[in-house]
Design brief:
Radius of gyration: 14 Å
Number of helices: 2
Structural class: alpha+beta
Low-confidence stretches: none
Strand order of the largest sheet: 2-1-5-4-3
Number of strands: 5
Distance between the termini: 25 Å
Shape: globular
Oligomer: single chain
Strand content: 35-45%
Mean pLDDT: 86
Amino acid sequence: MLSTTTENQIKQEWARKAERLEGGFTHHPVMTVTYEYTDTFGGEANYSWVKRGEFQDSSGTPDRLVVRKVKALAGLTGVRCKRTDHGDMIELRPYGPATVLFITFS
C-alpha cells in the first residue's frame, strides 16, 4: 500500500491536473468520492483486508478522471480493469489479482 506522503503527493498532482483541465478555474468541492479496495473470494468482496479513502472534487469532473485518481491512490496505475457502472457507483475488477475496487459518488 502507499504511504501517507505518497497519497498526499498524488492528491496534489491530481488537483493540479484537474485545475488545468478546467481552464484554471477553481470550483468549490461539491461531490464526495469514496472508494474501497479489497480482496475477493469466489468472485465476491471478502474484506479480509481493505483500503478505504475519500476525497471531495468538483461535480463537473469527468468520471474517467475520478477513476484515474482513485486507481492512483489504490496503487493500480497502469493496471487494466473490467469496469461496471452502477449509476452512482463504479466497480473495477483488475485483471490478474483477485481484488475489487468500489468507487461511490455522493
